[in-house]
Design brief:
67% helix; 441 residues; 21 helices
């Protein structure tokens, strides 16, 4: 998502043959960011880029020119994003019509608005299209600063980290004063585990020419993206001292509390955000996460139903419904919700990882194995699973392989899990079971 990672209440294997129970959400890992620096809460997995996949199948309004000065228009849209008004940004972009799909900066802007409103597939499509346009521009002008910058932003959002590292260096050479590129560079330092460099660069870049509240929102967003929820929470708290009713800061602070396992506080802040902004999707999702962690599954489903009514393609909403249903023993409802989530965002490895557990609970080891394999395949492409979650997938796969009487493969899967996380008790148990099976042959 992540991205915003949809990994809050995973059903995790406790031993071979028993892929049940729930995990508390894991600490967020450093992730690549979108092209946005104004988005106050860009969660997980930032994949933004062209026009949403269904655009060709619907009637678009006639193409219109950008109202007034294009740069002023884009600056106004960034201001709306900083005020957590991504829906309004999307509405104004839609009014421009299909002509905007040929302008890279507007595609990146649309992607950022989609990130804020948790429209993962549309965000991914936007960044993909933006990357294509940037690459086309570079064919005719290899040194174009605008195209190099757009390419780096798109790759950051698509979480293509190896390509992003090279692209950000090349773009900064062409545009050394581009603040968004400099901020993406700070994320690269965090991804490379250079925490000292991250804080140094963030202090330098985030303070440039910004009023206190926007600067603090920017800093908190970057801290959250880089995997520092404690520091991000402190910064969001500073925002709330300046503006106690800031919906974006309230919802984002709630998400930080969720990352830290403080679900009572997460619920309280998300509810405060919804009192101020009843249609804020991020706050509804955070409220539902807290309710799931607290075992209040029916209430969580009710909250998610309201969010999905506002935004039917909300993949994360369908995913959390599946988690709530599965956790409360409603397997068929959970399966349907997982399938809908996959339809809305097929690139998310977390969905398949949790679907594997559900298939196993329902007694279908073959489908559980296929879902584990798909989660791992997607992770190779997108890198969206955190280290602990990835270890759990390998441990679950080992459990399924034992069930299918494939102890050699199970042993290999358990070893992979332990290589990632030596303290994974499920992998240790499954490894012991596989060894016992092999000795008995």
């Amino acid at each position: 998502m992540r991205t915003y990672s949809m990994s809050m209440v995973a059903i995790v294997a406790t031993a071979c043959g028993s892929m049940t129970g729930r995990n508390a959400s894991e600490p967020p890992q450093p992730r690549a960011a979108t092209g946005s620096v104004g988005d106050p809460e860009s969660q997980v997995r930032r994949r933004a880029a062209a026009v949403d996949a269904g655009r060709e199948s619907r009637q678009d309004p006639p193409a219109k020119s950008i109202p007034g000065d294009p740069l002023a228009f884009e600056a106004e849209m960034r201001k709306l994003l900083s005020d957590t008004k991504g829906d309004e940004v999307l509405r104004q972009l839609a009014a421009i019509g299909p002509a905007m799909s040929a302008k890279v900066s507007l595609l990146l802007l649309e992607a950022d608005a989609c990130a804020q409103t948790l429209q993962e597939q549309r965000m991914f499509d936007c960044l993909t299209r933006a990357l294509e346009l940037a690459d086309e521009a570079l064919l005719s002008n290899p040194g174009s600063p605008d195209a190099l910058s757009a390419r780096a932003h798109a790759l950051a959002g698509l979480a293509r980290q190896d390509e992003f590292a090279a692209a950000i260096e090349r773009a900064l050479q062409a545009s050394p004063d581009d603040q968004e590129l400099q901020l993406h560079h700070t994320l690269r330092l965090a991804l490379q585990s250079d925490a000292t460099g991250f804080w140094r660069e963030l202090d330098r870049v985030a303070k440039r020419d910004r009023a206190p509240l926007p600067r603090l929102m920017l800093r908190a967003s970057m801290e959250k993206r880089a995997g520092f929820p404690v520091q991000a929470l402190e910064t969001y708290t500073a925002v709330l001292r300046l503006n106690p009713g800031h919906c974006g800061a309230l919802a984002s602070a709630a998400a930080c509390h969720g990352d830290l396992g403080n679900h009572d506080r997460q619920l309280a802040l998300a509810s405060r955000a919804l009192n101020q902004c009843p249609n804020l999707i991020l706050a509804r999702i955070s409220q539902a996460e807290a309710l799931i962690h607290m075992g209040r599954f029916a209430q969580a489903v009710a909250v998610l139903d309201g969010a999905i009514k506002l935004q039917p393609t909300l993949a994360q909403g369908h995913f959390l419904r599946a988690i709530a249903f599965s956790s409360s023993g409603q397997s068929r409802e959970a399966l349907a919700a997982f399938e809908t989530s996959i339809q809305q965002w097929p690139q998310d490895a977390d969905v398949y990882a949790n679907l594997a557990k559900l298939h196993y609970q329902m007694g279908d080891a073959q489908r559980a194995l296929a879902a584990c394999d798909q989660a791992l395949t997607l992770n190779v492409r997108w890198g969206t699973l955190s280290g602990p979650t990835l270890a759990n997938v390998h441990a679950d796969r080992a459990c399924v392989l034992c069930k299918l009487d494939r102890p050699e493969a199970a042993l290999a899967a358990a070893d992979l899990a332990l290589a990632i996380n030596p303290g994974n008790s499920n992998a240790t148990t499954n490894r012991q079971v596989a060894l016992q099976m092999l000795r008995g042959r």
